[in-house]
């Protein structure tokens, strides 16, 4: 009489565990790379939208607007001209660490690391480069009309 055995043998369980381990070795690095690059793209979208917002504020309020990048603290500050030309007021400071601890400002070509928007919406031209810990870079280029272009180099 033949008996039916139910369940798995130890060998079968070890083979399944080995397959899961091999698949994990393949997928985890790819997932970490995807996450780091997605964080970089999110940071670039936020900076680009703040650039557009400052341009729109300059036109609608008829006051100059600035974005000042601080490479040491990996942050940037949105500023508005005080009516009557009495200086600048800080509206908000944003940290790039909110998109991941590995995003750095690696360079700007703006004078004094500052984008200035005139009341007609024109801007100081230049580029801003953000980098993550995988070596991926995103370069945001701003032309004189205040329009932004982004070029990615993903690793």
Question: Quick summary of this structure?
Answer:
This protein has about 160 residues and is an alpha+beta fold. The chain is built from one helix and eight strands.
List keywords for this structure.
155 residues, alpha+beta, minor pseudopilin epsh fold, four-stranded antiparallel beta sheet, 1 helix
General description of the model:
This protein has one helix spanning 10-61, and strands at 65-70, 75-81, 88-95, 104-108, 114-117, 126-131, 137-142, 148-153. The protein is an alpha+beta fold and 155 residues long. The protein has one domain (10-153): minor pseudopilin epsh fold, CATH 3.55.40.10.
Specify the helix fraction band: 25-40%
Which value, in Å, is the CA radius of gyration?
Answer: 25 Å
Biggest sheet: strand arrangement: 3-2-1-5
Nearest-integer average pLDDT:
90
The fold-level CATH name is: minor pseudopilin epsh fold
What's the CATH superfamily, by name?
Answer: minor pseudopilin epsh domain
Name of the CATH class: Alpha Beta
Number of strands: 8
* N-to-C order of helices and strands: HEEEEEEEE
Shape category: rod-shaped
Strand content: 25-35%
Q: Note the total helix count.
A: 1
Our measurement of the CA-to-CA distance between the termini, rounded to an integer number of angstroms, reads: 62 Å
Low-confidence stretches: none
At CATH level 2, the architecture is: 3-Layer(bab) Sandwich
Major β-sheet profile: 4 strands, antiparallel
Question: What is the domain tally?
Answer: 1
Q: Provide the structure class.
A: alpha+beta
Secondary structure blueprint with pairings:
Blueprint: H1 10-61, E1 65-70, E2 75-81, E3 88-95, E4 104-108, E5 114-117, E6 126-131, E7 137-142, E8 148-153
């Amino acid at each position: 009489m033949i008996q039916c055995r139910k369940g798995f043998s130890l060998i079968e369980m070890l083979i399944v565990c080995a397959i899961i381990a091999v698949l994990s070795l393949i997928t985890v690095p790819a997932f970490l790379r995807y996450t780091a690059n997605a964080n970089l793209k999110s940071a670039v979208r936020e900076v680009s939208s703040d650039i557009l917002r400052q341009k729109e504020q300059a036109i609608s309020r008829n006051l100059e607007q600035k974005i000042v990048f601080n490479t040491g603290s990996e942050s940037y500050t949105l500023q508005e001209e005080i009516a009557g030309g009495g200086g600048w007021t800080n509206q908000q400071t944003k940290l790039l660490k909110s998109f991941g601890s590995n995003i750095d400002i690696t360079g700007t070509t703006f004078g004094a690391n500052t984008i200035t928007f005139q009341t007609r919406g024109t801007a100081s031209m230049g580029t801003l480069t953000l980098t993550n810990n995988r070596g991926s870079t995103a370069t945001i280029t701003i032309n004189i009309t205040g329009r932004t272009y982004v070029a990615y180099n993903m690793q």
